[in-house]
Specification:
Layout (H helix, E strand, L loop, with lengths): L2 E6 L3 H12 L3 E7 L10 H4 L9 E2 L2 H6 L4 E4 L6 H9 L3 E4 L12 H10 L2 E4 L10 H7 L3 E13 L6 H7 L6 H5 L3 H20 L8 E9 L3 E3 L2 E3 L4 E12 L2 E11 L5 E2 L10 E9 L2 E5 L7 H6 L2 H18 L4 E2 L23
Parallel strand pairs: 1-2, 1-4, 2-3, 4-5, 5-6, 6-16, 7-12
Antiparallel strand pairs: 7-14, 8-11, 8-13, 9-10, 11-12, 14-15
Length: 356
């Protein structure tokens, strides 16, 4: 029987997750929670720009809790632990890109109790963090002996991120350097990236210093920069870098970094993506050094990104691909270290049961 799935929130990741569920041969979409009252009662297909599929969205959490469903893809902008606890207690497994990639279990009593009561499982995933920062570095590290440093890094053009309020007021673009450095984004990002670094540290056995190091840098516009979120004036923040590092006796051994730019021109300092352009990288230093570059996770043009951003889509796909494995797992919080190898599924025209 098909695994019955609910989508929680229908923003960029949520819409892509719905598409992924509809394309997955083992999954069936049976519900969707929406934040906006204007979407209540709408057919989910219409919400994502498709023909009706016979599933109505709801703003009622009680409606979702009452559904006969196996798993919820939980993708709000910010997580709410009380919501996750309620979903787990109702017997629904939860896969999410907004946290719990490698949580401190001592601080997760409410979630673990809900999993035990509901016989359910919680799995945090995504891309960066949630894949490129820990799952893939650990996999690649098996090719190398005597590892001395593990690095994961993102280089992205934020002009393709179609969320103007988030870009300005949370990410901190188009404000003064002082406002950006004091803004909320570094703490919001740290919740995920520090967990990713700790997973690698623990699994690979680095004897690190007690505290992880957090650093952030900004570059300002040297002349007005026209962007999809408005003009960034001279002296305002137009590029940002974030780094989370684990140290052994002051030497970095695990680093997760983010580079977000509004293009590559008119910055001080004069940062750029480098000759390889936008990308994600995983690099393992050891014997031998190994470097893995991910392309295709960023759109070809700004215009394409504002319509459909591959980074958002792959985040959703990583969640959807995990659903069958999470549903089959024992109750509790399960990380990449607990689940078997995850895989996607063949396209219908190439998969089992295809038309001959």
């Amino acid at each position: 029987m098909a695994i019955r799935v609910v989508q929680w929130a229908t923003g960029g990741v949520g819409k892509a997750a719905i598409e992924g569920v509809l394309a997955h041969p083992d999954l069936e979409l049976v519900g969707a929670w929406v934040h906006s009252a204007g979407k209540h009662g709408m057919d989910v297909g219409e919400i994502i720009g498709l023909d009706p599929i016979g599933v109505a969205a709801t703003t009622s959490m009680d409606d979702i809790l009452a559904l006969d469903a196996d798993c919820v893809v939980y993708s709000p902008l910010l997580p709410n632990e009380d919501e996750v606890v309620a979903l787990l207690r109702s017997g629904k497994n939860v896969v999410t890109p907004v946290g719990w990639v490698y949580p401190d279990l001592d601080k997760c009593k409410a979630i673990l109790d809900a999993c035990a009561e509901g016989g359910s499982t919680l799995h945090g995933t995504g891309i960066h963090p949630g894949g490129i920062t820990e799952r893939f570095p650990l996999m690649v590290s098996a090719l190398t002996a005597g590892v001395t440093h593990v690095r994961s890094e993102e280089f992205s053009d934020i002009r393709t991120y179609n969320a103007p309020d988030v870009v300005r007021h949370i990410m901190g673009f188009g404000v003064t350097p002082e406002a950006a450095m004091a803004g909320p984004i570094v703490d919001l990002l740290a919740a995920g990236f520090k967990a990713s670094v700790r997973m690698i540290v623990t699994e690979m056995g680095f004897d690190v210093d007690p505290e992880l190091e957090t650093m952030q840098e900004v570059a300002v516009a040297t002349q007005p920069i026209d962007t999809p979120v408005g003009v960034i004036e001279r002296g305002q923040v137009a590029a940002r870098k974030f780094h989370w590092r684990a140290l052994v006796d002051g030497t970095p051994v695990v680093t997760a970094s983010v580079n977000w730019f509004m293009g590559e021109e008119h910055f001080d300092p004069a940062w750029s993506f480098g000759p390889e352009g936008e990308r994600f990288e995983v690099e393992i230093s050891g014997e031998p050094d190994v470097k893995l570059t991910f392309k295709g996770l960023q759109p070809e043009t700004i215009e394409e990104g504002l319509v459909r951003n591959p980074g958002i889509v792959v985040t959703a796909n990583h969640c959807v691909s995990a659903i069958p494995y999470v549903v089959n797992a024992d109750p509790g919080i399960k990380t990449y270290l607990d689940l078997p190898l995850l895989a996607g599924r063949a396209a219908p025209q190439f998969g089992l049961g295809r038309t001959k």
